[in-house]
Amino acid sequence: MAYVAVKGGERAIDNAHRWLAEERRGNPEVADISPAQIAEQLGRSVDRVMAEGSLYDPSLAALAVKQAQGDLIEAAFLVRAYRTTLPRFAASVPVDTAEMTIKRRISAVFKDMPGGQLLGPTYDYTHRLLDFALEAGFTPPPLAELPAEAEGMPRIHDILGHEGLMEMDVPSDAEPFDITRAPMQFPAGRDARLQSLARGDEGFLLAMGYSTQRGWGGSHPFVGEIRVGTASVEIVPPELGFAIDIGDVELTECQMVNQFAGSKTQPPQFTRGYGLVFGHSERKSMAMALVDRALRAAELGEEITAPAQMQEFVIYHCDNIEATGFVEHLKLPHYVDFQSELETIRRMRADAEGEMMQEAAQ
Amino acid sequence: MNGYNFAYLDEQTKRMIRRAILKAVAIPGHQVPFGSREMPLPYGWGTGGIQVTASVLGADDTLKVIDQGADDTTNAVSIRRFFARTAGVATTTHTAEATVIQTRHRIPEQPLREDQILVYQVPQPEPLFKLEPSRAEARRMHGLAEYGLMHVKLYEDITRYGHVSISYDYPVMVGGRYLMSPSPIPAFDNPKMHMMPALQLFGAGREKRIYAIPPYTRVESLDFDDHPFRATRAPHACGLCGAEDSYLDEVVIDDKGGRLFVCSDTDHCETRRADGHKGTELAA
Fold first, then answer.
1. pTM (2 decimals)?
2. Distance, in angstroms, between B135 CA and closest chain A CA?
3. Who among B39, B162, B232 is closest to A343 (CB)?
4. What are phi and psi of B167, to 5 degrees?
5. Is A8's Cβ below 8 Å from some Cβ in B?
6. pLDDT digits (tens, 9 = 90+) for A4-25
7. In terms of DSSP bridges, do strands B32-33 and B209-213 run parallel, antiparallel, or are they unpaired?
8. Among chain B residues, CA nearest to A84
9. What digits encode the pLDDT tens for the residues A187-245?
């Protein structure tokens, strides 16, 4: 066989991408799907892409979902690569989740509390039976009954805090760390850790959080509160000197309440793990809160024994854009390295064979 | 390209990366953390090298991109196109014509000059990572130049196998001070780094590190007096150009064990053939 040097990489790439576009479209007899349909009807996918892409823009996220054929990590990657080209013009003032417009709010630690429990749109308590009626086309059911005039819904730790049973946040005016601008250093501050977790992979955080429940760094969690709703984002432009509202974001916040035995300087009290995610994602916010609490082990003087408590392990590996890139880079050619390994293993085998023959001769 | 800055990155980001590069040049072999940006290409596919190239590239530069020594591997094609599109710079496949060469896994066979920059794509900048997975701990070991662990690893290899079993990404000491990963180039290429006239820059995007070897710097592959470093290659001549001193790719040509050995550096091989060198397998 005559050897033909492999040429034509450019043509192969162009053709591959044309094929991809064709496959993305699928059967042309089936109606094309619009990003607006995705944004409206696949909202949880869009939410996940916004969270992991760390950019709040439902229409761009919906476009990314379409472009990625529903591959949500690929879609998050598209959003991230777009996000990185945007200027950072301000840091918002802390979002006040106590003032959110709530669509769902539940607590597992009190039967009732100011503002009450509000189930909202949830998959909880649905029976997971495929609904063949959806296949045929959907007729909206009668509108859900909205709660009577919503009273204030203070956050659960504000309620428990009055007794001193709950550790409280210490407000800070310090400029927050920005993981998109500065490389992570360890030990990392909680601001940097929470940023990483907020855009970390949902599956990874779920597994890490789950591991803490099964004894790998257990922290006896209770869901203090989960709230889902819309909060306004405000910035203070230096030229104005006061806060202005720049828009609303939908958020899911989870306050996990954990036991803490106390230390020499602190009496026993409840500690907290915190989860905050773009869009409606209870699973992610709960997993994040479990992992956040586990990562506070060092700060609270707990022994670090489990993966979920190890900052470097969790933070370096929770980013699915980094992880998928590096795992998938194994597809790239490695002829040169493999060739050097071939030579090494041939040499080692020759040495071993020589020794065996020598032994046999003796 | 419309809507994007020259070479994709904005000028502030390039400035930040250039500062990291300057620091890296000032401390040869030391890994400088930098605010690596998300790129439109995946992590692990050259994002560090691309950011370094984007920061040093000028409008009058000529860029060459190789992967496995070849200009026509798909990822090299993709990165070359990226810069042709975002920076509009001239590109070449000829080593001698390039002012900036971005590479993955190889150093060109043709010696580089003072007016050239070699940019390496680095998957794992920390040479100690297999021995010490914590980067915080590894950083401390670099600070103290505490490299005994690596020497023990080499020693154990020698006692088990009779020689060091590392065949690529073979650790080097830079300027007699910092232990450094040369990136996954074959050990065969390590000696080329020593006293190289060209500036060598290393970018690791996912790991957010930049490091450098300034021109004419000592780069020594770790070894022992009684077990000196040996660069190995397949013991054959290139089937196309007949070269007996170049690094070779092994190409499987049938299912009966048939093999063809050809230069991994495609430009080197083509140049030699143009100069009249012929290998035994070259079709007439």
1. 0.90
2. 8
3. B232
4. -110, -20
5. yes
6. 444 667 888 899 999 999 999 9
7. antiparallel
8. B38
9. 999 999 999 999 999 999 999 999 999 999 877 899 999 999 999 999 999 899 999 99
